Amino acid sequence: MEKEINLLAIESSCDETAAAIVTDGHKVRSNVISSQIALHTLYGGVVPEIASRKHIEKINPVVAEAFAQADMTWADIDAVAVTYGPGLVGALLVGVAFAKAISFAKDLPLIGVHHIEGHICANFIENPDLKPPFGCLVVSGGHTHLVRVADYGVYEILGRTRDDAAGEAFDKVARAIGLGYPGGPKIEKVSHEGNADAIVFPRAKIADGPYDFSFSGVKSAVLNYLNACEMKKEPYVQADVAASFQKSVVEALAENARKAIREYGFSQFAIAGGVASNATLRQRIAEVCAEEGVRFYHPSPIYCTDNAAMIGVAAYHEYVAGRFSGYDLNAIPNLRLGER
Ligand code: KG4
Ligand code: ZN
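Above: the input record for the complex with KG4. Below: its predicted structure, written as tokens.
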């Protein structure tokens, strides 16, 4: 039997301090996430300086917990992987500095991972039959991309958002209708009690980018609707606004996904990122895939939102390809997908 490859992975790009141990690119031995949500809720969003300080406080205990849950020691580890971008620079630096120090001290190879590659690779954890090439819709708080995964580590961006990311729009609308941070899960929850056809929020059409998205228009349409209600002294129905907004975003995502499936002839299509944990989105993309005769994949919600297991999966394919980082690895806040 071939030796198993165990990677320790670290993720600290935003407001979760996370560490995981992943074997052979799909077996998750441990996946520890220390969320800062309660702390940032006080401010209505992520405060970068507070995030960095909290990462420094949490990184050692989170890594220790990852070893405890996996019942493993440093002697079992073959390489250390870490997210080096994109994300908040101060937050990324905590993980990168930690990973470099431990890689040097324990004489282990170092692997820098792109955060969005991690989100895409989360699909490999529970779907052993999924292999490139496939199409993937990445919807997170900072990114909205339609991607062709040509091979492991080889990505072609077909479309992206021109303004707000899908998750960002969820967060902004949630704040406007008094739901607070983080907006996505809260909008999803209240939408269950609302009528998604109550209000039609227009969707932007982008003439020169068939797979591009724009979500600032629908966000403005919601704000205008709320203002109009206020001027007329008419109360609005929070659940109807939430459900109608969610429908508008989901339909825009589904429409471009369908176009890409047809144009590129994908036989497999996946979704990834925090917004991919939204059940309405998952159901709609599943319908589109069924109609187009395409196999549909998605990670469980715990692997959709930020976690380190997904970083360990992406890093495994770098390990196999012999692509390692040097000690000059640095945090790159605006790292683009496909760049190294
Ligand atoms: O991927 P992620 O955890 O972090 C980034 O890389 O940005 O995504 C976070 C985003 C937030 O904007 C959050 O509101 C959104 O994902 N999100 C959701 C849901 N859960 C998280 N959006 C819609 N529905 C959800 N259930
Ligand atoms: Zn993320």
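Notes for the reader.
Residues 132 and 151 are 5 Å apart (CA to CA).
The beta strands are 6-11, 16-23, 27-35, 79-85, 110-114, 134-139, 144-151, 154-160, 268-272, 295-297.
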